[in-house]
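Handout, section 4.2: multi-component inputs.
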Amino acid sequence: MKRLYLILFCFLIVAQVSAQENKKRKPNAAYNKQNDANEKFLNKQWWLGFKAGTNLTDVHVTKTYSVFSPTNYSPDQSAKKYEHFKQPGAQATIEASFYFKKFYFSLQPTYQHSLFTYTNSYLWYDDVVPTNNLELNYEQEQKLDYFIIPLLIKYDIAGNKLRPYVQIGAFSAFLINANKQTTISGTDNASGGENNFTDPAIIVGAKDLFAKSSWGLIGGAGLNYTLGNVRLNLDAQYKLGMSNITSTKNRNSSDSLSGVGDILDDMTMDNISISIGCLFPMRFLANGFKSSDR
Amino acid sequence: MDLNHQTVNLFLMLKKFYSLLFIALTVLSCSEESNPKFDTDNFTSIFDNYKFDIDYTPIDMVQTSDGGYLILGRRKLTTSNMSGIYLLKADENGNFVKELEVDETYVNPVARLTQIGEVFYFACMEYPFMTANIASVDPDLENVAFTPVSSINDIIPTYPSVASYIDNQFLLQCYDHENRQSGLLIVDPVTGAASGGKAFTIGIGAADNVNEAIINTFAHSRRSFPYEVGKSGGTYFFNGFYNFTYSLVFTDLVSDDPIGVVSGQNPPDSDFEYQFGAGFSSIVNLSGSKFAASMFYFGENYLMPGITIPSNSTTSLQPDSFNPSYAFPELVKNANVKILRTTIDSKNVLIYGSDTKTKQIGLYFYDEATGEFLGSRYLGFSNPFEIASIINTSDEGIAVCGTTYVAGRFPRICIFKLSKEEIAGEIK
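Output:
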């Protein structure tokens, strides 16, 4: 139901923006009919382009899971602590947009490599001599590769040569690959002295642990700069994950991870991406390949 | 007119876009949904304790009527070298619910933990008298009661080693250290009254050091032997000490001598750990004289699914004594082996669970009818894991209880729950 409201909300925003656009146009209705053909032509354009950039990821836990079930301490002591928008990933996008009167209807298939990390710690100690203790710190890094299909509506706010725009839409993400890297480090104060150690990282394929597909909403803004026929593009997007990215059925399927006490939580994934790229017009006014910029 | 036309175009365009968006979202909204069943079907739980010196060792596990799990274990005591009694309750998702450390007066809990009605029973002994008791506990671990096992046929029921619930009675094996004999008793689980029993010598004139060595195996730090009791047809059997060897003994509980014996091996070695160097490490009666078994043989291990052992046979246990007999060099020396009869995809399957040299729990699947190897599965990684018990669960899956050494050093009880689909995926 929450998702339905959000979709409805997006629909209303776009409908409102388009309605206002038409309202603004009404006083200018009587324009020169001689230019009509050109205007009609220039009001529509196909843009094809490519962009790439970097992204940061955050996850929101909806339900926690743990292999360790404490019998005499609070589960909070060993709870996972997630890092937020910390590790940079990368993405590459092919953009195909149809322009119509300041609106773009855009399909942007994207390959996205995202990373996020969480940590948790455990402490064991001697009741009689508390300085006799062992602390273990687990760092779990997830590397996820997604093929993302966003559908966006972009709206040119102003300008001609420099065109800022806002965008909104939804996306579906298909998992291509996933890996997990577990690094265990710690401090051993129980072997006759302080010993800090880091074990070799455990790297396992984790594709089965994550949902094959997920979806979410996108909002963002950007700038197009016209350079001849080409538009240089700076684009920022925020992807709001709406569905669980963890495989609820397979979360326990990795003996390698459960053996070291790790299991994935239910979570949604948010992502901030910044890309730069260029767009090429697909329709031209004349043989001189003048693009339809207005 | 033109403006209207353009507006119509815009809305047509928007309509197409939203249609596309709607279709896309509909198709792609096959998103991951939580399902509580998934959480009970498969899980791994490690019951952790912050204390450095806590040492709980699971012995047996049963599934409770609420879908949760009750684990019977041993705990290290500071007041004696015996093992104390430890009970742990987990819910259907493997989450810790409650634990109970039983008073140190009662020690040495042994398998099997058995549910009768809403009460759980197991055998243990009273310290320092070493007399066998039947302990009963409610599912919420609120109350534990003990009933001493009565003597019968001059058998002093001390040092209980294993008990199985057969024909509504406990079939209890014990070691009568006064008379230096292994006893097999039929005991009422509620009253502790023995209604039958027979005892067999561990060896005429057995030296004190042998007697002492057997008793020492009941100490917390020592390796326990794979004691077993059961019934094949109308004949009872036990796997225990008899006539200087660790043997499989068949008895009708009437004759003074065993009906049949499969003798273990007793090499001339002064080190007791190796003195009883060969014997069955597990044995389950399938039907009549057909058994699923495993053998330890001077450190080596053999799995023997579907062997025939006539109850009147008198033979010595060798790797080639029975067929099939598969050597398993991947298992640790004198490995602890558990056998579970189960049904997977309408096929009767034997699951052997044991400890591998890679410190994992190995599960080996065999066709019960043919003895054919069907597949394997290994549980655990990085930290060492050891098996304690394997059971069928109400959802047709299995659950494996064992010990893991967290951080490579702290023994902690663990449960692996595997769904029926996951098990089915492991076999041919």
